[in-house]
Specification:
This protein is an all-alpha fold and 89 residues long. The chain has one domain (2-85). 81% of the residues lie in helices and 0% in strands. The chain contains three helices and no strands. The protein starts with a helix and ends in a 9-residue tail after the last helix.
Length: 89
Amino acid sequence: MVVVVVLLVAMTAGNGVVCTLVAAFLHFFFLSSFCWVLTEAWQSYMAVTGHLRNRLIRKRFLCLGWGLPALVVAISVGFTKAKGYSTMN
């Protein structure tokens, strides 16, 4: 519900920069939510198999949960020159 409200506000603002920023942030947060679910599944698997290492894994999970989506969004914005994140108007 919040996503729809934010998207509608960005679309009615009439500013292309705001629309592009909102689209990039939505892309980042959606990707990060999927990556965090992946890390939770990975941690559950490691707990079941008995290979749980807390200190080293925590750093990798942070890199996977926040770093991978940031990298994907940065590459997407860079290749499309931010035109792929705005409306056609």
